[in-house]
Amino acid sequence: MNTQVNFNFYNPTRILFGTGKLNDLHKQAMPGKKALLLISNGKSTRTNGSLDRTVQQLEMAGVEHVLFDRIMENPYKSVVMEGAAFARETGCDFIVALGGGAVLDASVAIAAMATNPGDLWDYVCGGTGKGLPLQSPGLPIVTITTTSGTASEINCWGVISNAETNEKIGFGDESLVPVLAVVDPELMRTVPPRYTAFQGFDALFHNTEVTISNGVNLLSETLALSAIEHIARYLPIAVRDGNNLEAREHVAYGSTIAGITMQLTSTTAEHSMEHAMSAYHHNLPHGAGLIIISKAFYEFFIERHACDGQFIKMARAMGVTDADKPEDFITALVRLQEACGVADLKMSDYGFCPDESMTLAKGARSMQGGLFLANPCEMTDEDCAAIFNKSYR
């Protein structure tokens, strides 16, 4: 497998990265005068002080705000439409998204629908979406991430669930790339250990998928391997001690870098497969689903010798310094999952049944079939179902 030298890259997001960077938000040029401040429907941003700190920063910047606190894990299209209507009704001219992947993903869709007519699914490509182009640019977005996982803070994509059709599909447009992102590991200290692991593996798999993708290039591979190294070394520490800011910083680095690698090179069908899983089982955290299928997913390509060299590079980045065969990556992956306490996850714990595998496989291709094209070799629906079967416990 040859790594391409040519690539296209454009990212207009100004990134404030590092401990304490939220304190600098008020010094930045704001893209509007009144913000729709998005948070989740949980308590974390209120209890850990990040909401109060963000409001203070907006006030210091001379910006008004209204709060929308309805975003749930695996955000629904219906809530996106509510948020967009609320932004219009209250006269907001930009969005501040404070939270984890769900909030950041939702901000992209809300920004678009605040300025465009119709329904979000009119503009979604894939599944039952109509794939229409946006008629107007969305509202500008400022992101403040409180987790290390999705890298949504610097990209123009959000994955939204449609409860009416049992679909979970990525939506995005280049015009929706955030103008400013704050990545402050101080805001991540209160993420519980289990979710620190789930989110960290999401970040890891963004980078491992890029590395084995048939579109990998010199820049995306270099950045992805760096991110893989930092996540593998520091994620177990962050899981054990959430207050370890050094570990939080390095995991956050690996996550944010994935936002760049994914713009340079597509991820693969691992993400399509997980989105199908959580489309049918909304209680499944995205990172947990990825962990559950990861071993069987990567073994599929190793058994077919689709990109042996890439797996060896990743194994070395993950600490197997003398790695000389692709299977060494699986050894490193399982070791990392054990170190983070997530090697025991079961599909059955989230309500899955063994006879769902083909439904999930077909759903993955229907919802996000484009990611299958990035796989390093062909994967049929039967292959996909077999990976689900192999992962089932």
UniProtKB/TrEMBL annotation:
<dbReference type="InterPro" id="IPR056798">
    <property type="entry name" value="ADH_Fe_C"/>
</dbReference>
<dbReference type="Pfam" id="PF00465">
    <property type="entry name" value="Fe-ADH"/>
</dbReference>
<dbReference type="InterPro" id="IPR039697">
    <property type="entry name" value="Alcohol_dehydrogenase_Fe"/>
</dbReference>
<feature type="domain" description="Alcohol dehydrogenase iron-type/glycerol dehydrogenase GldA">
    <location>
        <begin position="12"/>
        <end position="185"/>
    </location>
</feature>
<dbReference type="GO" id="GO:0046872">
    <property type="term" value="F:metal ion binding"/>
</dbReference>
<dbReference type="Pfam" id="PF25137">
    <property type="entry name" value="ADH_Fe_C"/>
</dbReference>
<protein>
    <submittedName>
        <fullName>Iron-containing alcohol dehydrogenase</fullName>
    </submittedName>
</protein>
<dbReference type="InterPro" id="IPR001670">
    <property type="entry name" value="ADH_Fe/GldA"/>
</dbReference>
<keyword id="KW-0560">Oxidoreductase</keyword>
<comment type="similarity">
    <text>Belongs to the iron-containing alcohol dehydrogenase family.</text>
</comment>
<dbReference type="GO" id="GO:0004022">
    <property type="term" value="F:alcohol dehydrogenase (NAD+) activity"/>
</dbReference>
<feature type="domain" description="Fe-containing alcohol dehydrogenase-like C-terminal">
    <location>
        <begin position="196"/>
        <end position="392"/>
    </location>
</feature>
